[in-house]
User: What shape does this take?
Amino acid sequence: MESITNKFQKYKRQFLLKKDKSIKGAKDKGILKVINLINSRENYYTTSSCSGRIVLYEKINDKKNNFNFLFISHDKTDLDDIKDIFNKKYENIWFRQEGFILHVCCKTIKDAEKLLNLIMKIGLKRSGIISLKNKIMVEIIGTEVIDTIIADKKLLVDETYLKILFNEANKKMDRNKEKIDRLYEALCRLN
Assistant: This one.
């Protein structure tokens, strides 16, 4: 029978060799140092990640994941980056700013507990174990979020409000980056 260590290392090697299936097709540079650090640890590896982003999307209907991305930025941005979007007809446009997210596969439940204790100490309280079945998976998630409708067949808000929205989203992106930096520092102590 294959040992837990050998099985985990085999899955880790296979997973880390897989092609990136994200929309972007590459890991976000804003969280790459954290991913590399986790993946260098013997008992952990990342399965998905996002450094945080600002998006505009068209909601097609209320079904999960039934939307069309109109704009995506993993950096701070402003109204000038999206003005041309409003020259087109869309049914239902939403503005969303999201915090970072990481999914980390852990070798054992003790490893997951050690990781969770570490990240809870730095204030990432929305993190937790999301799977125990085939893999022990920890989700680390930032809390910086804005999600609001801005157009429904026509623009529902004025330019002043959109500028405020982008300004708030950029502030949250700054806080998000600070949390990623704190996470990296904390993970340096993880063995």
Q: What stands out?
A: Residues 79 and 160 are 10 Å apart (CA to CA).
